[in-house]
Amino acid sequence: MNRLEAVFKKKGITVFAKINHKAGADKIKAKLAPTQVIIFGTPKIGTPLMQSDQHIGIDLPLKVLVWKNQKGGVSIAYNDPKYLAGRHHITNRDKVFANMAGALNKLTDAAVKKPMPTPVKK
Prior knowledge:
Helix 1 crosses helix 5 (about 95-110) and helix 4 (about 80-85) packs antiparallel against helix 5 (about 95-110). The protein has helices at about 1-10, 20-25, 45-50, 80-85, 95-110; strands spanning about 15-20, 35-40, 60-70, 75. The chain has a single domain (about 1-110), classed as TATA-Binding Protein (2-Layer Sandwich), CATH 3.30.310. The protein has a four-stranded antiparallel sheet. The model has no long low-confidence stretch (mean pLDDT about 90). It is of the alpha+beta class. The protein is built from five helices and four strands; from the N terminus they run αβαβαββαα.
């Protein structure tokens, strides 16, 4: 889960908050796999979207749900930025939403994939 936050920070994306759902479950003595919501973004992208329609502010900054799945791996879920465009009827920022979707896919993929070992030269 920390890998995604590290990927965001490396790319200059602000992590505004983390919500630890497991900690909440622990307080009521309920079982829950490690589960967090990471709230992140950049005003450089979010502000122009809000200039198009401030209603999108309910969905900004973006959020990613990260949890330890039943196989012991990490799963990630988020709302596709193109879905948010439709939800808020923003039609004048298609390229921005497409770029956001592509970047989010790459960032989350980078966080869940194990790094390839560096080949040893003999």
